[in-house]
User: Fold this.
Amino acid sequence: MPSIPLTRAERDQLLEAAKQALERAYAPYSHFHVGAAVLTDQGQIFTGCNVENASYGLTICAERSAIFTAVQKTEGRLALRAVAVANRAQVPCSPCGACRQVIAEFGRDVAVIYHGANGFQESTIADLLPESFRLS
Ligand code: THU
Assistant:
């Protein structure tokens, strides 16, 4: 079922939450501070930030951090309406492939807002990750 389009106010609120979340990033290796905020179909917002590790491969991105919190805090099955991502450097930064697959798990029409070449832009996860892997 297509999700309800984001209002301007919802988009602004989600981006603001992502910007606030990036202040909590733990990124002593890359110095690339990222925050993410997700909006669920129940109207709740959850945030996350990237958390790096001396063993680099253990790093988790802001998007997955936010989504895993949303799963933990949501009663019943999580469905996402939108994900917003912000970075302190304000450079183009769309979700990585792993995060795209995780976003796709929780909705086909999730709006994804991220810093593009000319400020923030919006796509759907279906556009960002066509033919995503599914088991059902
Ligand atoms: N990172 C994110 O948190 N989200 C993205 O969309 C891109 C990359 C993080 C992972 C790592 O801590 C740092 O940015 C540099 O790759």
